């Protein structure tokens, strides 16, 4: 057959073939099965081994921890542990475990299983330590020993009082895995996860989907959904297109510019502020920002309202200090964000004799929790130039950026973008604002802020066992840090998600975890 | 011919060794390390050091290079830090997906490119030539990722004719029709630019051949025009078209990166981008060496094909 003739015959045949294949593209997802559009392929489904929020979204539905966050808050409540006692000196935690709970592989959850989990992470001689590495095991580095008192009782001996301990247990790193499954799968446990959670693992088709189905025997009531399918769709535009076309029922991390697409019928946009702070580290050791007035001037100069509303399209709120409002119990509502006041900024600059100060500004191209770092930097640069700074931007790829910023800004830059998501009000200030946390001591205080009063308050809050007392101390920290202005406090991110109108009962949690136990879909 | 093939294969060895050195050096020299990438905000010097030790990255670079090379020669590519699975499993799985996508695009651009170029040349300055030249110019000028996004918008979101992304349906898929169904948009988007290039070069190659004496002889003998063009001329022109196809195969393979991202195709291009961003050293190294080896091999095949067509090349 000659080529042209072949074409003439083949084209209608191909069209017919496609037509006869039906319309699988527009076929809706089945009822009772929730398809979630994730931002990436998971690394592994071993809670001790992973660090990404993207993976936590799956893990939180397959495993339980000893404790968990109460719905809608960042306060802990019982989960696999029914109750616990803390010794007066804050170094011994004794947990009473829930009876009759089984892992998805049928083995019993008991005190031995708890001990196995923490020993695996912390003890280099443990036979399954090689199923790691366990990058976040330092969350539990205060643990000296885990002791099995009896089948249903387990005791943690800490080397020193450590107030964030319970909240760290509620973090995915503290989720409990089946020891028998670890023994069976070894290094491949991360691809064959077994927990006690509301859903049990079915299959992982690499780069296509992770499928989990309901655990009918779940101790906290079996979920309404029959199954959940997690699909990795890395490109945000493609994820948006899948949502619009009905290929997925739930989409997380909707790009701000795409939110408008979902305003119509058929979709529901869900938002929730989380324990996230987006800020600028200022180099308080040298250069213009060594002067507190200049640091405050930068806080006054930047129009944070415009940043969150225009650049981030309303997906964040203006931050007031180092502890985000999501930690409701520890947040100081009396501390107000610096208002946008260029006049006041100019005045402060004049007082400090820092007009026309040249600033080097480190900017990242992307990175976890960094929102839209480049457009934000450009807007910030314009605001600062407006009041008389002279800002030069240097942009780096995320890992390179961390390599530049984490060792400290001294001799390199005056300011740098940064963002943190944490699970306890202690974490961020403790790692980034204490004198002891300067980079040479292994901390993240890359701007060399130092205030002995803040140091004292943070130490005290960390060793206190009373939540009221801790709250009071953190509130003082916020007031002092706000005044000292070691950072420009910019934004607290509101996590968002879009669900189709077939989905009901879906809420986002302030922890940024994705909990699907109570969701239904028709 | 056998000696020629052996010679080409031997000459590929230093090329591949050079590639291992380059990819290793790049991964060793770029700032940031896997521990920092894994730990993110929690990358304290202490944590980084401990994790690097657990990952075996505390040894000097030259030692790591030779250990890696020696392991690789024994077929052992190591484990991916990030995915915690053997590099070779991931690479083969991903390369398979890329091969399906790039292979389809390559076939499409070969058929339609040569077809369009030949028709164009046979009807030089006619309306068909003008229309094809215009279409080709348009095709070459549209970036493939943009074309891909527009196709998704039109055919998947608005018309709902085709699936937005992925390689198989999430439910009840997995068979060949399902694969082809998912392949239509990405393969087309990827093929468009290459088709344009092949068409342009085929046209000029054909025009050159059509001016030669043996064509005039064939016409003078009364061979029908169709036969002159599709048999006599095209066969002679293939000698200059085939090397272009070899180069286009490389372009299609590397262009697949964008298309894989836009269409969420689980191919090796996307895997490499992710692996570089997370500093998954062994996965990047293994993946690059594997793709490079395939590319080198493919070029040898192209050269051999050319030598078969044109006896003057064989040495």
Write the layout of secondary structure elements.
The complex is a heterodimer of chains A (522) and B (315).
Chain A (H helix, E strand, L loop, with lengths): L2 H18 L12 E6 L14 H10 L4 E3 L6 E3 L2 E6 L5 E6 L13 H12 L20 E8 L2 E6 L6 H5 L9 H7 L13 E7 L3 E6 L12 E6 L3 H10 L4 E3 L14 E7 L2 E7 L9 H10 L2 H8 L4 E3 L23 H11 L5 E7 L8 H14 L3 E7 L1 H8 L9 E7 L5 H6 L19 H12 L3 H18 L2 E14 L2 E2 L15 E2 L1
Helix pairs in contact in A: 7-9, 13-14
Chain B lengths: L1 H28 L4 H6 L5 H10 L6 H13 L13 H36 L4 H15 L2 H15 L17 H35 L2 H8 L4 H38 L5 H10 L3 H29 L6
Helix pairs in contact in B: 1-12, 5-6, 5-8, 5-10, 5-12, 6-8, 7-8, 7-10, 8-10, 10-11, 10-12, 11-12
> In the CATH scheme, what's the topology name of the largest domain in chain B?
MetI-like fold
Overall radius of gyration of chain A: 25 Å
Number of helices of chain A: 14
Largest sheet geometry of chain B? none
Mean pLDDT of chain A: 90
| CATH architecture verdict of the largest domain in chain B | Orthogonal Bundle
Number of strands of chain A: 20
Write out the CATH superfamily name of the largest domain in chain B: MetI-like
Name the beta content range of chain A.
Answer: 15-25%
Q: What is the top-level CATH class of the largest domain in chain B?
A: Mainly Alpha
* Global shape of chain B: globular
Helix fraction of chain A by DSSP (H/I, runs of at least 4): 25-40%
Question: What percentage of residues of chain B falls in helices of 4 or more residues?
Answer: over 70%
Assembly state (oligomeric): heterodimer
**End-to-end distance of chain B, in Å?**
9 Å
Tell me the number of structural domains of chain A.
Answer: 2
CATH architecture heading of the largest domain in chain A:
3-Layer(aba) Sandwich
The SS-based structural class of chain A is: alpha+beta
